[in-house]
User: Fold this.
Amino acid sequence: MGLMDFTKGSVSVSTDKYAYAMGEKVVATVRLNVNTQFEMRGFKARLNAFRMVTRSQGIGRSRRSHTEKEILFTDEAELEKPGTLKESAEYNVNFNVPKNPDLVSRPGFLGFIGGTKMEWEVEAKVDIEGGLDINASKKISVGE
Assistant:
C-alpha cells in the first residue's frame, strides 16, 4: 500500500514563472487528483505574502519559543463551492501582486541586522469535512 491508498486525492500548484514584480499578474494552475468521491467544505487558492516570526514566553529554563507564519497579505479565489468532489480537474487562476513596497524583503545592517525577509506562495487547499485537508503550495519570488 502506498501513501495514495490512505488519501482521498492530491493537489499540485504550478505558476507561469518563478519571479514577479510589484503589480504583476501571477498565473497559476491548480491540479486536483481525486482518488475517491468525498464531501468537502470548499476548494480555494490563495496568494500569500508572509514572514516567519519567532515568539518566546517565559524566562530562564522555562523559556519556550515557537515559530509561526505571520500572513501580511492574502488574495483568495474560490475554485469549488462546498459539495461532493467526484472527479479530477484542472483550474487556472490569476492573482495580482499588490504595489506595496512593505511586502518586499529588505536587507538590514550588514545584510542581516534589522532586515525583513518576506516570503510569497501560491497555495491551494481542499477543506475536507471530518478529515485531513488536501493542500499544496508553491513558493515564488516578488521584488520591486
Q: What stands out?
A: The two ends are 47 Å apart (CA to CA). Residues 5 and 68 are 31 Å apart (CA to CA). The first strand starts at residue 9 and ends at 15.
